[in-house]
Write a structure and sequence with these properties.
It is built from three helices and no strands. The chain has a domain of about 30 residues.
Length: about 80
């Protein structure tokens, strides 16, 4: 086999490999669950139990208040 034929075969095979990409299709969307249904683990807050939406909301309110500079310093807004 000559060099020209070998180069043409190599070029043709590389061209075919480049065209062999699989189609990328989106999978169906999965519905999100409620955040309060999350798994209970060692890293969750002690006052919250999995599935307790009221405790989840209270924990989020307390966390947001802890990040509020006005409530942390004690000065009025």
């Amino acid at each position: 086999m000559s060099r020209a034929a070998l180069a043409a075969t190599l070029l043709l095979s590389l061209g075919l490999v480049a065209c062999g990409e699989k189609p990328q299709t989106a999978s169906p969307r999965k519905a999100d669950g409620r955040p309060s249904d999350g798994p209970a683990s060692a890293y969750t807050a002690g006052t919250w139990k999995a599935g307790d939406a009221v405790a989840w909301d209270a924990q989020m309110r307390d966390r947001a208040q802890g990040q509020n500079e006005y409530s942390r310093t004690g000065s009025p807004p």
